[in-house]
Amino acid sequence: MRQTTLRPGDVAVALELALRPGEGFVPLASAVGISVGEAHNAVRRLRHARLLRPDERHLVRVPFLGFLEHGVPFAFPGELGALTRGVPTAHAGPPLAREFGADPVVWPSVEGGVRGESLVPLYPGAPALAGWVPDLYELLTLVDALRVGRARERARAAAILRERLRAA
């Protein structure tokens, strides 16, 4: 028997389910950019972690928000790297860029048009989200602000995440 543990990409699956509760596995996998099998496995792991309701694909919001704020930065810490071109994230992403636009952070990508410090995304498909699922992309940039941001950036990202996930 093995211990079931969350994977970084499970955060993206949970965020997609926060935006579109009960979404089927095929649209879920398509939106996140993973296989249907991996979407199914992510939902199973999220249920095991008690972040999804047992018999539905609906997020349990309060524990999930707590996990985002207090668990993700420690379970999936971000590390800034060399300057590169890529897709803006963290405080350089759309929700926070106006407030904290200096010193951009990017997910490395040839399709990105911003130069900044590199940050490995939570999962490989994240940089492509900016073009095809902008609301999920924005939520992931806020999660990255929690992972690598300074205190003010983390506080603002947490507030926006709470607001958006309550409204969803």
Given helix and strand content, the structural type is: mainly alpha
Please report the distance between the alpha carbons of the first and last residues: 37 Å
- Runs with pLDDT <50, length 5+? none
Radius of gyration: 15 Å
In total, how many beta strands?
3
- Summarize the helix and strand pattern as letters: HHHHEHEEHHH
Q: What is this structure, in a nutshell?
A:
With 168 residues, the chain is mainly alpha-helical. It has 8 helices and 3 strands; from the N terminus they run ααααβαββααα. The protein has 2 domains: 8-75, Arc Repressor Mutant, subunit A, CATH 1.10.10; 80-167, no CATH class.
Description:
This protein is mainly α and 168 residues long. The chain has two domains: 8-75, Arc Repressor Mutant, subunit A; 80-167, no CATH class. The protein contains eight helices and three strands, in the order H-H-H-H-E-H-E-E-H-H-H. Helix 1 (8-19) packs across helix 2 (25-32), helix 4 crosses helix 7 and helix 4 (61-75) runs antiparallel to helix 8. It is globular, with a radius of gyration of 15 Å. The termini are far apart.
